[in-house]
Amino acid sequence: MIAETTAEMDTLSVSEAVMRLDLLEQSALAFPHAGNGSINVIYGRRGGNIGWIDPEPENATD
What is the enclosing helix (H) or strand (E) of 44? Predict the structure, then answer.
């Protein structure tokens, strides 16, 4: 079973997102990146480190 919710997403810098992840005690957080507007994800990793997913735009060229 999958639970679905809707919520507004604040545009954040990566450092703001990390602070919010810590304050809300969540394991992951998706957010629009303040620098480029793309949806990014940060997540807690083993050992207390933070992972960051910043996908390339579909039309990115080499």
Answer: strand 39-44
Q: Return d(Cα 59, Cα 48) in angstroms, integer.
A: 34
CATH number of 14-53: 3.30.505.50
- Please count the residues of the chain: 62
pLDDT tens digits for 12-37?
Answer: 999 999 999 999 999 999 999 999 99
What amino acid occupies position 60? A
Paired tokens of 52: 């960051």
Q: CA torsion sign, 25 to 44 to 27 to 33?
A: positive
Q: How far apart are the first and last CA of the chain?
A: 40
